[in-house]
Amino acid sequence: MEKLTNFFTDIMKKYLPDPFVFAIGLTLLTFVLALLIEDISFVDLTTAWGGGFWDLLAFTTQMAVILAMGYVLATAPITDKLLNKIASMVHTPKTAIIVATLVGGIGSYLNWGFGLVIGGIIAKKLALKVKGVHYPLIIAAAYSGFTFYGLGLSASIPILISTPGHFLEDAMGLVTLSETIFSLPMIITTVVLLITLPLFNAMLHPKDPKNVVEIDPALYADQPKVKLNLLVDNTIANKLNNSRILAYTIGTLGLIYIVIYFTNGNSLNLNILNFIILFIGIILLGTPARYAEHLADGIKTISGIVLQFPFYAGIMAIMAASGLVDTIAKVFVDLSNEHTLPFWGLISSFFINFFAPSAGGHWAVQGPFMIDAAKELGASLSETSMSVMLGNAWNDLVQPFWILPALALSRLKLKDIMGFLVMIMFFVGIIYILATLAWSYLL
């Protein structure tokens, strides 16, 4: 296994460009494929690309808010104390890998933005504390927990199709969360992955100490933060900035709204998720000034995502306008029957996600075709929808887009950790494929 990991690591270090270059390359590749395969002119394709560049601006903002506010939750004093306590109980490299995977995975199950950040933070703490930890691996292990978001409370596709008024409601109706992420097959899959993935990641740790790259404490130690209020005074403005009464009052008002929202029968969606994260964060940080300070730090970790999201929106516009996504999906659907459609949906979703790494945007281009196929073949709509979600979460392990926050926190390069993520991708793929087939045939 170590030889295979080294093989992929060497390949990635030689040939894998930075994430932004990867996004540009995917844009050009999609453009060429659409011209060669689909009946569309260069002018029409260019128009679709440029016109779609900002189509996901609102969704981009939602994603950025989730990440930035997830950072606030992950760096709140109470969270930091908990992570320090966890790190203090870890003494060996393999245990550190297991703990980083679990923290990143559980965090991502609760909220993917929170999990992305808290995984990187605990990995960094463990690498600084535990001697002999291979730093690129522990960062990769923490990021691998991100795949749990496809099974968790912020899984975009299950949440979307359970929300009244979603764009495919006329075609498929509403699919409740009890039929998707809270169904027995997906709960079993979550438990199996939660047990096996940390152990698999620990097996990837180099056995020869000469191959271990440890964290450099001088380079990665936390730097003193610049406080927003440099002068401590008794002015009214300063007292308001640091008022716990204001923070707890507005935080409580937010929590009351959340209770009213769910009491009225409303379902979970991205907007209410962001609302919950915002007001819990305000309460945990305790003052408006402290919240703003942590949020400013969090925004630094999402700059790459803000830059690249429009490029992926453009790629999705190319695929939708040219019909390329339908062509890709049709190749797999033509092989399907009512039992195998979810399996081929998983596989096709994996490949499409290279070009559309946002689950919401991904579903917008692949969802209509898959639902039509499911209705025509008599396949389960819930299984088909979840297969697209799992394919998305599976591919995210090696799609460079969502790795950006982990790279920002760790100060590593994509090529440093991708070899490990390729190995993890193969392992997680086996779990998801078996789960999808078992759901179709046995449950």
Describe the protein in words:
With 443 residues, this protein is mostly helical. It is built from 23 helices and no strands. 72% of the residues lie in helices and 0% in strands. It is globular and about 65 Å long. The two termini are 33 Å apart. The model has no long low-confidence stretch (mean pLDDT 90).
Unreliable runs: none
Intertermini distance: 33 Å
Principal-axes geometry comes out as globular
Global structural class: mainly alpha
Order of helices and strands: HHHHHHHHHHHHHHHHHHHHHHH
Rounded mean pLDDT is: 90
Estimate the helix proportion, in percent: over 70%
The portion of residues forming beta strands comes to under 5%
Number of helices: 23
Keywords: Membrane, Transmembrane, Transmembrane helix
InterPro entries: SCFA_transpt_AtoE
Protein name: Short-chain fatty acids transporter
Transmembrane segments: 20-41, 53-76, 96-123, 135-161, 181-200, 245-262, 268-289, 301-321, 341-365, 420-442
